[in-house]
Fold this sequence. Notes:
Layout: H1 3-38, H2 45-71, H3 77-99, H4 104-112, H5 122-137, H6 141-157, H7 168-191, H8 196-216, H9 218-223, H10 236-255, H11 261-292, H12 303-306, H13 313-337
Amino acid sequence: xxxxxxxxxxxxxxxxxxxxxxxxxxxxxxxxxxxxxxxxxxxxxxxxxxxxxxxxxxxxxxxxxxxxxxxxxxxxxxxxxxxxxxxxxxxxxxxxxxxxxxxxxxxxxxxxxxxxxxxxxxxxxxxxxxxxxxxxxxxxxxxxxxxxxxxxxxxxxxxxxxxxxxxxxxxxxxxxxxxxxxxxxxxxxxxxxxxxxxxxxxxxxxxxxxxxxxxxxxxxxxxxxxxxxxxxxxxxxxxxxxxxxxxxxxxxxxxxxxxxxxxxxxxxxxxxxxxxxxxxxxxxxxxxxxxxxxxxxxxxxxxxxxxxxxxxxxxxxxxxxxxxxxxxxxxxxxxxxx
Length: 338
């Protein structure tokens, strides 16, 4: 990996995140206040935290800006607003499905024709208003509405993650499917329907990022009795092999895309900034297995044992070394495909 490219990319992302934080303070926070007034309700502190500190940062900067650079289509101010609004609506839809007993028909109507949906529930009306704006600003409204229904169906399918008898194969499919369809949802709104090759690349990158998130959410998922590949793992050495196999598949898919080499490398650095943290987590769990003895019942461990602090200097060094290793593997794969 070219160190100059890495530091240049890191500086660009830092500036983008700083600018997006200002955008959230100037635009999103006042918008949330207006939604509360218009629809006579309040977002919870946790909802506001997820919106302003996570989704409205991650979706525009890490996903949408990265893809726009890859495909050579700069993000306009209107698209920036849409990317931010998609970041806003994502956690609210999750809460809506978790908290309200809506029928499939109600969910479909709220998604495809929100202007016709009647409700006196604050969260529903907030989602409805955001949904109307997103439907009207989509690059291809028909394609966007189609993929929006796919997103909701995949989210409904994730209820299987609360089944203690779910298999590893089923968990992998759910993990990759729910992550990929979110990436496709963002892509379709901004740029139209992705090609088959792009969809396959998004499937792998999104799935790996979700898998890595699950590694860091092990304690939360264990407390919520939600089953993932991470907290059901019987042997993290095997999961490490799986991790590298999936990265190789990702590298092959991205290398085969019809875009300039430097743009694909730039895209991979941005994606691996998250994915490489998964390798740090896996190696930590392997050490924990040696201490506890395999197999470990992850549901019985404390928060202190399962939560990994990535701000510690040691973990930051391991994170950088993991990024370096994965980028070298990507470049090696790219050379083999050329």
